[in-house]
């Protein structure tokens, strides 16, 4: 039986400005104290009536397929994931965090678990709070961001000043525009590019800040107690001690290795890069196109703020590649010329539709 006596832990979160998320986190511990499993939802945690194990938390993930899948973790997994971060940091000191990601996602919840297991504290804020004056209670902490958030914050001098006061900024969750990474280097932000997923209870690779400042991209090296390898399709396989518990929904396990469906590559000196996801492939005329790859090239075009690439049924091609870009006055003809120099002919979208507003990370299906 785990000890969920959390009164002192939450007392250290009293400086939180995001009271709603703090309340949800406390509710999770309330369920666990009463031997009830928890299901994470965007509207708040609820009791997982369909699951019997009392220290379990159920997350939902859809990847790029759009098909919801439930992934079940317990506190043993969270502790193992926290332990590998402590080993990566080569530190036995408390891990203090800022939580500004939704805690119904694993990246947000691990910002709670890391201080819980190490004797640290978590402060819940909205990421836009970085644009206002920081209090001393928010300094020297780790924060996790997704590229969309960083893109918005990096345009604010005050936000950059505050971000530099963090001990480290874990950046993951989606492919990152190289131009954004260069801006972050120029602002001297302590970025730690990372790669992980719901199934692994968060990060399994991290790029050291020192490597980031040297201009290296990608997601870094395997974290301690993690093994990665490529299968015959160049899909990344992972083995670690924090994999989600087996349940009735398949997790693509092969002799203890989890098939991530991410196509990747590893350099001779052990640095990993994620190319694209296999399960989001568009088959057009027999050729396979990665939406993530096409999006990354489109995002490198200077006047594109955001884009979404998808497949659309076509009687000739089976599926044709469609790209939505913003802003609305984007020069589509010049963009196509730009893409012809960087993509294979079949990878170039058959249609590019400029729209007034498209949030970064939006997927139009």
Please provide a brief summary of the model.
It contains ten helices and 21 strands. The chain has 365 residues and is of the alpha/beta class. Helix 3 crosses helix 4.
Features:
Rossmann fold, 5-stranded antiparallel sheet, GMP Synthetase, Chain A, domain 3, 26% helix, alpha/beta
Radius of gyration: 21 Å
Mean pLDDT: 89
Q: Can you say what the CATH homologous superfamily of the largest domain is?
A: ANL, N-terminal domain
SS element count, helices: 10
Mind sketching the topology for me?
Elements: H1 7-11, H2 19-33, E1 38-39, E2 46-47, E3 56-61, E4 69-74, H3 75-89, E5 97-99, H4 106-118, E6 122-124, E7 142-145, H5 147-153, H6 157-164, E8 168-171, H7 178-186, E9 191-197, E10 202-206, H8 209-213, E11 221-222, E12 226-230, E13 235-240, E14 253-254, E15 257-266, E16 272-277, E17 282-284, E18 287-289, H9 291-299, E19 306-314, E20 318-326, H10 332-340, E21 351-354
Parallel strand pairs: 1-3, 5-6, 5-7, 7-8, 8-9, 20-21
Antiparallel strand pairs: 1-2, 3-4, 9-10, 10-11, 12-13, 13-15, 14-15, 15-16, 17-18, 19-20
Helix pairs in contact: 3-4
Written overview of the protein:
The strands form five sheets. Strands 6-5-7-8-9-10-11 form a seven-stranded mixed beta sheet. Strands 12, 13, 14, 15 and 16 form a five-stranded antiparallel beta sheet that branches. A four-stranded mixed beta sheet has the order 2-1-3-4. The longest helix has 15 residues, at 19-33. It folds into two domains: 7-277, 3-Layer(aba) Sandwich (Rossmann fold), CATH 3.40.50; 281-354, GMP Synthetase, Chain A, domain 3. β12 and β13 form a beta hairpin. The protein is an alpha/beta fold. It has helices at 7-11, 19-33, 75-89, 106-118, 147-153, 157-164, 178-186, 209-213, 291-299, 332-340; strands spanning 38-39, 46-47, 56-61, 69-74, 97-99, 122-124, 142-145, 168-171, 191-197, 202-206, 221-222, 226-230, 235-240, 253-254, 257-266, 272-277, 282-284, 287-289, 306-314, 318-326, 351-354. The protein is globular and about 60 Å long. Mean pLDDT is 89; it is low at 360-365. The protein contains ten helices and 21 strands. It starts with 6 loop residues before the first helix and ends in an 11-residue tail after the last strand. α3 (75-89) packs across α4 (106-118).
